[in-house]
Amino acid sequence: MTDKTQNDLNPWKGKKVLITGTCGTVGKELLRQVSALEPKWVRGIDNNESELFFLHEEYKDRDDVDLTICDIREKSQLVQLFEGIDIVLHTAALKHVIINEKNPAEAILTNIVGTQNVIEASRISGVERVIYTSSDKAVNPTNVMGTSKLMGERLITAANGTGEKGPIFSSTRFGNVMGSNGSVIPIFKKQIMNGGPVTVTDESMTRFIMSLSEAASLVMESVFLANGGEVFVTKMPTIRISDLAEVMIGELANRESVEKKIIGAKPGEKLYEELMNEEEVRRTIELDKYFVVKPAFKVDSAIFDYSNQKARKIDKVYRSDQETLMNHTELSNFLTINKLL
Any residues with CB less than 8 A from the CB of 6 and at least 6 apart, and which? Predict the structure, then answer.
C-alpha cells in the first residue's frame, strides 16, 4: 500500500492538530478520537485550569498529546501555540444561552473576537484547515449566544474571501449534543433522582439531537470535505422535549411518582430549532450525511466538489418542528445505546 493510499484511508496520520476548548464535551471527544488516528501530535488548549489538570492526568503517558492553558481572547498566545499546526478544530465558546444573555460583552469577547483571533493566528502560522463548530441557534438567532455563533460563522466564511493563499476555513453546524455539559439530560436525571418535579419549558418544544461520538465524528469528516467558506449542516433526528422527560421518568423512576411541570420558555429560548433558514435554502446542496450551505458571496478558491458524492438541490428549510419526531420507543433506544440513562 502506497503512502498516498494510506493517507486517503486515514488523512489524520502524521498531522499536527490543535483543538480549542479541549476540556468541553465536544472538544474532549475530538481529542479522544483524533489521538487514536496516529496524528504526529495533538495540542489541546483551554482556559479551564482544573479540567485541564484532570485531562492531563488521563493523557500523561501520551508523548503525542500536549495540553496547554490558553484563552482564545489572547491572540499573541494563539499565534505562538499555532506554530507548525496543520489542522485547527475550533470548539471553544461560551455556550449557555442564559449566561450569554446576561453577559453579552463576554460572549462577544470569546465567541466573536476569539474566533477572529483563531482566524488570524491560523493565517500567520500557515495552518492548512480550520473547522469552526457552530450551533442550530445561529440560524435566525433570538438570543446573544446564537447571534455570536452566527457572527463566528460569518467570520469563518469571510476568511476565505481575502484573495490570499491560506487556510481552508469552514463551519459545521449541529443541534443538541445529548449528555453534554449543560444539556437537558443531566438536568432531568438529577431532578428525577431527587423525586421531581421534572421541569419542561413548553409541551410543544422540539429539538434536533445527536450523540457525542456522532457529533465529533461528523466534525472530523467535514475537515477533509471542506473546500472553503461553506457551512456543513449535520442531518440528525428530532425529539419533543416533553417526550424526553416522559421517557426518562419511565426509565429511571415510577412514572406516577415523579411530576412533570411546565414552567414556560426561558428568555431568548425558541420553541423549535432551525439548522437552515429560507435564505440559505437556495444556495444549499444535500449530501449523504450533510446539507452544505455555500457562501452567499463567491469564494475564488472554492470548487465545492465533495469526493464524488452526488449533490442534490433542496427546496425547504430544516426545522425541528417540521421533521418526523422520534417516538418513545425510538427515544428510549437512543438513550440506551448511547449510555445516557
Answer: 13
The whole-model pTM stands at 0.90
Residues 6+ apart with CB under 8 A from 43: 16, 17, 18, 19, 65, 66, 67, 68, 81, 85
Is 187 inside a domain boundary? Answer: no
Q: Compute the distance between CA of residue 137 and CA of residue 19 in angstroms, rounded to an integer.
A: 22
- What was the pLDDT predicted at 218? 87
Say if 251 falls within a structural domain.
Answer: no
Give the number of domains in the chain: 1
User: Which residue in 95, 137, 149, 270 is the catalytic one?
Assistant: 137
- Does the residue 84 lie in any domain? yes
Across the chain, mean pLDDT equals 91
Label the pairing between strands 198-200 and 284-286: unpaired
Q: Which domain, by its residues, includes 164?
A: 3-175+212-236+274-318
For this structure, is 137 an active site residue?
yes
Does a structural domain hold residue 185? no
What CA–CA distance (Å, rounded) separates 15 from 45? 17
